[in-house]
Sequence to fold (540 residues):
Amino acid sequence: MCVPGCQEAVARQLSRRSLFKSAAATAAAFSALPVAGAFATTTSFSKVVDLTHVLDPSFPTFFGKPQLEIRKLFSFEKDGFNLNEWVVNEHTGTHLDTPFHFSKDGPSAEQLPIDTLVVPLAVIDVSAKATANPDYQLTAEDIAAYEAANGKLPPGAAVALYSGWDKLVATDKFRNADAAGTLHFPGFHPDVAAVLIEKGASGVVVDTLSLDYGASKDFAFHYKWLGSGHWGVEAASNLGTLPAKGATLVVGGPKIKGASGGPSRVLALV
Amino acid sequence: MCVPGCQEAVARQLSRRSLFKSAAATAAAFSALPVAGAFATTTSFSKVVDLTHVLDPSFPTFFGKPQLEIRKLFSFEKDGFNLNEWVVNEHTGTHLDTPFHFSKDGPSAEQLPIDTLVVPLAVIDVSAKATANPDYQLTAEDIAAYEAANGKLPPGAAVALYSGWDKLVATDKFRNADAAGTLHFPGFHPDVAAVLIEKGASGVVVDTLSLDYGASKDFAFHYKWLGSGHWGVEAASNLGTLPAKGATLVVGGPKIKGASGGPSRVLALV
Fold:
């Protein structure tokens, strides 16, 4: 059974199926790449930063319909303890996208080794560009500018796109839908996938609802990046409080068999 | 709607209500204590250890009935991407118990600050005692022996009870129910709650299905420990691979509003 509103979202999604299938054929050109743990040496930190939004049934979703229902099964007053069950879509709140989300047989959540989810974090600030142009797509030039200022991306890094969109989460500007229903928020340009693969990155992080920019019609970055064995985190918070380099990302993703992703506790060790 | 088998579990649980309510009255003597972040200084690590079991619908549960249903909403072959939704009980798999689970108004999952979930980890090995006696309860003497060998528990520590039960997860011996349905696995003795509170611990970890030992009839440790503002992790794995002291625990718990707990990614930085 769907959560409230899910049927409409599914119906809407169904109309995109031919689109997805065509893009999937393109992604097939990418072979699955193993991701590898990045820590051969000692890592230090003195502060923990929570990159996770509070999730409740009203949290905005890509399809615009609720993706979480919380059912109270027991209450302290009546039963002596509190306990709920959830009906939750894997792609809700601050969450993990696994390779399996956009591939036929890429690793699902339980198959990503833990040391590929605890990795050096590079934060690329495109907030000024995204404020000026909500359809901004992070480019290879942004990666080059980051490396010119901060040095090469470390092996196995996660690359975060900081747009400042997390501050909009309680407003309609988070989805930023126009009259036709097209969303307008920043994301990774599809051409960046090959650049990050060449540089050995493990994952990417966005503070928006999608790795691709909101107006994408083909989810091309998803197919290229996830389809080549890498992971992503969507709807992260607080990226703007982090240093451009030197933090360590911890993706506390679900270890549920066959999961294409799932709500996660995401944090940075600084 | 319950997951398959849930109705029976609920019916069984209902018969425990008077028991829970009586124990709750006892717990009311404990006032809510704030938990506090433990890192004023730099912490280092060179290895990440996953303490999380793979979770699927067959994962054993305290009540003996499935607590996870996975519903495939989209598949790559048909739709161009994979996506599921879950119906999941908050206390399933390797998971967090919040203070709210056994209190009227203690902090729920989204109210636990992240720096109270990333803390020094003390591992107390009672595996020999638990093998000899599945009803073994970790005592104040075990804490004293740990401190004699390893020094005082650090401020804000999590204290893990390592019994070796994680190796039994695929067998009936994990629940170890007798003919009357009583479970037999080790846990924390209720008197240890006051000891850990006095020592300033933040959380506890077990590799079994309950913080209390399986045969507990009153969940007294739950009420005393969670009811006083502390958290627990149940059904952890791999505790036996960790050093007795020096590791840092990361509880990647859900940040879901009002959650009494939830499946979590739990790991150790060593």
The two ends of chain A are 42 Å apart (CA to CA). The first helix of chain A runs from residue 6 to 14. Residues 75 and 81 of chain A are 5 Å apart (CA to CA). Chain A has one domain: 22-31+38-269.
